[in-house]
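Chapter summary example: a protein plus zinc ion.
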Amino acid sequence: MPEGDTVWRSCRRLHEVLAGRELTRSEFRVPTLATTDLSGITVRGVVSRGKHQLFRFANGFTLHTHFRMEGAWRIYARGRKWTGGPDFQIRAVLATADHDAVGYRLPVTELLPTADEASVVGHLGPDLLGPDWDLDEALSRIGRQPERTVGEALLDQRNLAGIGTFYRAELLFLQGLHPRTPVAAVPNLRRVVQRGQQLLYANRWRPEQSTTGDLRSNKRAYVFERPGQPCRRCGTTIRTEEFGTPGQERRSYWCPRCQPLADADSALPDR
Ligand SMILES: [Zn+2]
């Protein structure tokens, strides 16, 4: 599943091939945009906000897309075969004289005035990879719900934008925190969030996400998607469960020995 670093890299590449270029063709395979034609319009730029993508056009409009679980934007040099999936999964095509940008499996594809972008991304907390990353603001937002689990708080894009289940699992392992630890019981929340920002930053140019420093496919993670396997640090069997607000449960992974569950009362004196 795409996380903030993947979206950031995707938008950087889209920006490189589209910014300042005029669209020779556009196509939207969603009912609300079926008749929209952006050909002749210049692309001002492409930016990411958390896991959202914003394509800004010279006509004052922004195309807003989101990957959710399986979406992707692919870029093809003119004349190259599109290989991102079957045709029926295509939601948007933006073509210039040199490239085709093709959006696959996008659950969100909408056009809105650029001046109204806040209506779709204004709720997001500070973007971990944004130029306006603000650690104190993120900590302040997380701190508003001290009884909530740190696992849920880190995934909530209204607190900070960019962390998904991969970085959550890995970050909590690296910090020795059980995913269900209440926010109030985290001894050094500032350090946790800083480390999370560093993990995304370190991976932002890489197609393969790794928190171990090893890029081999079965060595990239400490605990993510490794349930039943031994912890790389202590050998204890990695556990997994789904938890969260009903309807928004997400899967977590942890080592019971490296990440013991502390309770809020025992940690309060440290705060
Ligand atoms: Zn362990």
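Key point: The first strand starts at residue 25 and ends at 28.
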